[in-house]
Each structure stands twice: as structure tokens, then as C-alpha cells.
């Protein structure tokens, strides 16, 4: 017996994404930026993003209905920390790298982007994480403290240190003009 819907409507509802999945989809650009900043590479960042989204969807029932964005960023931060610890204990060497067959990157970044990327890479993971969450993603200090399970004072000092180190790195890499002033 049908209760006001036919079978085609029920099938359509089962395949349509629900509000939770739609909310996760809207987080994808921010999660992608954060994953790439943590991983320091597009491919590792994409792997981290995929693992994070998979975990968010699999643990949906653990979400308490408050600030999905912060919850997803916390999961990503913890995934990265676990992966980073594992790699420190079990270093990997790519097959092509071991054979000396690594190809040059065909798509070189513009000079300014590369300088910024190098400056960000020089930051510690903790400082870079705080910088990305506050400056790029727009989180409040208290939110970042909760996500990273650290005191708010630590967030502020890491952010200050990251900004100072970034400014120094960018200043040190400045290109010197080859023309004399007139």
C-alpha cells in the first residue's frame, strides 16, 4: 500500500543528498585549502581531504549538531597529526625518487606565489595551522583553541609567531631591483 508517494518518488528521495551532505559539500573549498596548507602538496592535500570527508560522513551520528565546519576542521587537523606522526616513524620513499627519475614540475608558479609558498613551508605545522584557520578560514581564536585542543593564549602566540616569521621570510626573499634610481 502506498502512503501518498509512489515508488519513483521514494527512489528519488533515497538518492538525493540530505542537508548534512549538502552542508559538507559547501565546506569542500575551505577544507581543500586547509588540507593543502597542512600537507604542503596538492596530491597529499587531496588525500587528506578525501580521508576527512570520508570520516565526517562515516561518523555523522557523532556530530552533535553544533558548528559542522569546526567539527570537520578538527577531524582534518587530527587526521593530519596522526598521518604526520606515522610518517615520522615510517618514512616513505617514492619509487621514481629512489631511482632518480623525478620529473621537473611543468607548471611553475609565478614568482610571488612561489615565494609565499616557500615562506609558508618554513613555518612549523602548528604555527601554519593556526595561521590558516584564523587568517584564511576566518575562525575566532576560541574556535581554533577548541579545534586544536590548546589554550587560547597558545593560539595567539602561535599566530603572532607565524605572522612574524612569514613577514621575515617574505622580506628576506625580496628581489633586488637591477636598475639604479634616477
Automatic annotation (TrEMBL):
Keywords: Sigma factor, Transcription, Transcription regulation
Residue span, RNA polymerase sigma factor 70 region 4 type domain: 114-166
Pfam families for this protein: PhyR_sigma2, Sigma70_r4_2
Domain PhyR sigma2 residue range list: 27-76
Molecular-function GO terms, alphabetical: DNA binding; sigma factor activity
GO biological process: DNA-templated transcription initiation
UniProt similarity note: Belongs to the sigma-70 factor family. ECF subfamily.
Record's protein name: ECF family sigma factor
Annotated source species: Sinorhizobium americanum
Lineage of the species this protein comes from: Bacteria, Pseudomonadati, Pseudomonadota, Alphaproteobacteria, Hyphomicrobiales
